[in-house]
Amino acid sequence: MTPGPDQGYGPPPDHARAETYLRLRVEAELRRVQALPRPDPPPESRIPASLRGVARLAAPLGQRAVTTVQPLAGSAARSLQPLAGGATRTLQPLAGRAARTLQPLFGQLAGTVLPAAEQAARRLQPLALQAAGRAQTLRFAAEQQLRMWQWRAQAAAAPLRRAAGDGPARSAELSAEEGLGRLDTVAHALAWAGAIDDATADSVVGSLETALAARSRIHSRWLLVRVKRGIRQHHADRPPAGAYLAAPVGAACPAPPESGLANLDVITMVIAPDRAFLVVAARVTEPDARSQHRDPWPVFGSADRPTAIDDRGNAYQLYEDSGWSNDEGEWDSILQITPVPPAGVQWLELTMSPGSAPIRVDLARAAGEAAIGAEPAGSPAARLIDAAAIDLLGEAAGSEAGRAPGHDLRGVTDIVTALEGAGALAPARDAVGRLVSLADRLAVDVPPALRAAAPPGDLPAAWVSVLENGRRRDGPCGIIPAAVVLPELDGTRFVLAGLRSSAAGAQLHVLAWGRHRMPGFFVFQHGRVGVWSWSARDDRGRWHILTEGSCSAGDLHANLQLEIRPPLHPQATSLAVTMAGRSGQVTATVPLDWREAR
Amino acid sequence: VSAADPSPAGPPWWAALPPAVAEVSCGEQTHRLRWAEGKLIAVDHPDAEGELVLAALGGDRSDCVDLVEAWGRHSDDLEVLAAGPRSAADELTIGPEDLAELRAPGLGWAAYAPLARARFQTRPMWIRPRLPRGAARLRPAGGITRVKTVRASGGARISSVSVGRAPATGVRQVRRPGLANEAERERTRRTELLSLLALGPAFQWRLAGTVAAAWAAGGSRAGDRDAARPALIAALTGRLAPAAQSWLGVDPGRVNVSLQEDTGWGRLALSGDGHARGLSAALPVGWLASVWAAGLAVTAGHLVIALAEVAWPDATVLGVAEPGADPALLKLRATAGGWERTS
Q1: In whole angstroms, what is the distance from residue B226 CA to residue A16 CA?
Q2: Phi then psi for B325, rounded to 5 degrees?
Q3: Is A515:A557 a contact under the CB 8 Å cutoff?
Q4: pLDDT (tens digit, 9 = 90+) per residue, B193-227?
Q5: Is the pTM of this model over 0.80?
Q6: How far apart are CA A186 and CA A193, in angstroms?
Q7: Nearest CA to CA, how far is A519 from chain B (Å)?
Q8: In angstroms, rounded to a whole number, what is the distance separating the alpha carbons of residues B94 and A212?
Q9: Which residues 6+ apart lie within 8 Å of B181 measured at CB?
Q10: Which one, of A257, A254, A255, A252, lies nearest residue A267 by Cα?
Q11: Can you tell me the distance from the alpha carbon of A86 to that of A163, in angstroms, rounded to the nearest whole number?
């Protein structure tokens, strides 16, 4: 899918020039923020003196929650503004509802925290932490909801904007936090492209944070959160050393009676040095229940938990780790096996529910790391831009109309401008041309600065294939117990752990270890710039792009569910999956021997 | 002193800066820190060095002595220039309450660590609004609902939206003390810096001058200047820009500065017309220390480029009336309202 190495990477980047460019942007950003109205100080004086200490502990977290949600609500509102008549009337109440829903939530939070604080004289710290946890939970739930609304509003508004001859939503003045996020993104894009190193990017962004905090433009507490995150991002995290095994299972068993699911398909088992997982799939039994996504969706009761034993007589338990469901009635889950089976175990016998027939998983023949060498994958700067194009392509391929009208290219434009300013765009200029051509073909608004950076280029054959097949609904229906351990690349280990296909597309389960913080694709928010480009080609010549459908992540590990679009060719017998990182790419071939999903 | 080529052996960088005093809380008392002639001392701790020795042996530390020590640690820290004021109008508002929050026990790193749901923040992908179909539908039929589980650093799960929980014993602990130490060091460094800036404008400017002097010709870090060039250019640009705006009315975004490495005061040149008018300048880092930090950048309609002689409150400086003009000697006197020209 990556169009191939561009002609050379150009001259080595001038790090001093790039750093100077970035630091001068910090100066400009600081001037911009200084011209913004100063936010009102919080009315802390209304809190009784006896509780101020506790309030001081809890308030920053709540405030951070609000700080995160507010820009989202703001951008949702900005997206709604250009809507014409009826659409406005339809969508604006949505944003209003968002605000109305959130306000009481935070009110409730305050109501919960402050009374709790009264008792906290004796148990101050645990309660404050509890409150903080609630604030975090609320915040993330609200954030997710708002993003969904924002996206829907943008998608709905874009055709209307275009019909009215309007450009993309005009950017209102960014808040200090938004501006900081923008600079963070640019800094780490420059680092990704090799124009500066990661530590410099962190340092420059950190200096802006400190400057803003010193002027009360961001909450000083925010510094600590970001300090920690920055350090974590660049700490030498590597996947745990040791053997990684992936074993295809491909067996079915009855689902527990109260689960609302039909038979469980046990797809793939993965054993890593620190964790072991079982990927399972099912279908919802009742058609009416398809869209009733339960969250959480516990399938196994505490008494009927799945168990396993191995050839040495060791016993294991399986716990639900994460999962997803969709409106097509598909349900997938990742079960964690504890403890981790030791090396040398020959087989594991699973008992998924009491009385069900055991399922034996042959570990002696499980696949270790695939013998695949990494190949070069073009300049990092070019792949950064290509990843943005693939992101756009994925959005178009996933839509009914094969278009992505709401797609916003301002983020990548900012990066292109920065690469140009830092003298690091040369190796990516062709990629910019491809992106512009793709955007034009999909009728996506192209910011002038992006269009000016390079002449339109030819679309790679793979992208054309995706565009041409994007609206097909001819994919095979079934499950493949795919099990491939990819070689470590850029400090990350990916394991392919099951493939599920339907007429409209397919999903690939991928487990990741290491620097999974950016396992995804083109990520632009709050300074995260991560590019793991995934693509695939089936043996009937149909190209596919893989975008992230869902993800759950913890320390050093992530469970990903990748959406494959367009659907696999109905007669395809194998699928070559390519994963490209910063230093190269690897390709693994998965035989397509379909099992019918139960 | 020649107007065309000011001698590098001019007055010390701090010559045009009068002494300054700040009152700080030190335990239960209010103490004074005094800055004079480039040095900061804890007035109420005459044996600060002795206190430091005792502290190293496990004795109590005083806030005053901590601040003096921090001042020394940050005396060549370029982040001072990145965070500090750019002009007199650039007011830093960090105050004791902000610092108290940063230092608050229980919500330092140790307490933050269990809330490693920053992972949520750093991982937006699961909330990426990918809807396989029905892009414009308010409730898309193909929308995916994610069921998420999050694990904290120590392996314990903390999400309220998880579908199940493994017992803590079933999850291998991941301990990374190096990471915690690094975070703590970084937190301390930033908190220290903000504590120094919270001493008030007089100290902010003096600290910035101290740092600039360290990187200027003859300073303790002058030999490392190549690696710090981007930060120094930004520091100069960020301070010359507002000065140039008040001096010439140019857009601060159109001020370009390079480092003057050779002897001589540097150069100034205008470019463009109208709204596109900009200023191109080459100035030595020492300008920040001796001129800007003393509040002399634009005085009596001139951009001051160097000190010639100083006998506080009188000073003779070199200034240019406009870009391209020859520097002229100006005699100034410090008053309560700032510097005034006397001849």
Answers
A1: 9
A2: -80, 155
A3: no
A4: 999 999 999 999 999 999 999 999 999 999 999 99
A5: no
A6: 10
A7: 9
A8: 10
A9: none
A10: A252
A11: 14
